[in-house]
Write a structure and sequence with these properties.
By secondary structure, this protein is mostly helical. Helices cover about 65% and strands about 0% of the residues. It is built from 17 helices and no strands. The radius of gyration is 19 Å and the shape is globular. InterPro entries: HDOD (IPR013976), RNase_Y/CdgJ (IPR052340).
């Protein structure tokens, strides 16, 4: 992973998770904290407050009366959704200034948020979810490509070779040309941010979950989310999409294929509203 670490280190001003995320996260995790305390913290961040209110008033929730206060929005949509929004907003804000000319940033954010929602949804099917961790994994899954497009745009373009190859095929070509792939760079980024070891291991093994050791199930969930995202971006029909998923990986993730169509449809509806709420491009 030496090359991957060098790529991360080469970006002097690489963004990290901002302090506002950790501050609000501590409040969310504090059983003694009140909704009012959380509302005051979010209220001190105008952009975040606006995103929360847009989400609460979106068609996805369909409340009959307009939600006009942050505390009311928190009460109605729940702490879990608030945590998701805060995390997504923090990462989107941090990386908002990093816009490599050759990278499709609309697709990047769409896929990142979709994978985060899918990871949480899949994990929660069996009530075994560390919600924040699986959501974060989805958001960070393709962050390695953002680093690579920023650090070595010519080489990453060469590795694509003008084709629409699968994620696995693309990663193999990246290793041949660059010496590492986006998953390795993502793991190196997680390490540089001093995120929990499980995050880095899972990101690094997302294409090969069997290599994730004790984090095998998390890696299988992330791999499944990435597969689904690829098919969604290719506008595959829902039934065709599920039929093309790797059954061995689904088994490792403890997922029944029949569970997926409803889950995917639900996540797609959430995706549209989350992107709108944060002002991120839909297409």
């Amino acid at each position: 992973m030496h090359v991957a670490q060098e790529l991360v280190a080469s970006l002097d001003k690489l963004a990290s998770l901002p302090s506002v995320y950790f501050r609000i996260r501590r409040t969310l995790d504090d059983p003694e904290a009140s909704i009012q305390q959380l509302a005051e913290q979010i209220g001190s961040e105008p952009a975040l407050s606006a995103s929360l209110l847009r989400l609460a008033n979106s068609a996805f929730y369909g409340f009959s009366r307009r939600i006009e206060t942050v505390s009311r929005a928190i009460n109605l949509i729940g702490l879990e959704q608030v945590g998701d929004l805060v995390l997504t907003s923090a990462i989107a804000t941090s990386f908002g200034g990093i816009r490599p000319n050759r990278m499709d940033m609309a697709r990047f954010w769409r896929s990142s948020v979709r994978c985060a929602l899918l990871c949480r949804g899949i994990a929660e099917r069996h009530h075994k979810s560390d919600g924040e961790r699986v959501f974060l994994l989805g958001l960070l899954a393709d962050m390695g490509h953002l680093v690579m497009y920023q650090a070595i745009p010519d080489l990453i373009e060469l590795s694509m070779d003008g084709t629409q190859a699968s994620l696995k095929a693309r990663a193999e070509r990246e290793r041949q040309i660059i010496g590492c792939d986006f998953a390795e760079v993502g793991a190196a980024l997680a390490s540089s941010w001093q995120l929990p070891l499980s995050i880095g291991v899972t990101l690094g093994a997302q294409l090969h979950p069997e290599q994730a050791g004790e984090h095998l199930r998390l890696a299988a969930i992330l791999n499944t989310a990435r597969q689904i995202d690829e098919h969604c971006e290719a506008e595959a029909a829902l039934d065709d999409m599920v039929g093309q998923l790797d059954l061995d990986v689904l088994s490792l993730a403890d997922i029944e294929p029949g569970e997926l169509p409803v889950l995917i449809s639900h996540c797609e509806a959430q995706l549209q509203e989350m992107l709108r709420s944060l002002g991120l491009p839909l297409h």
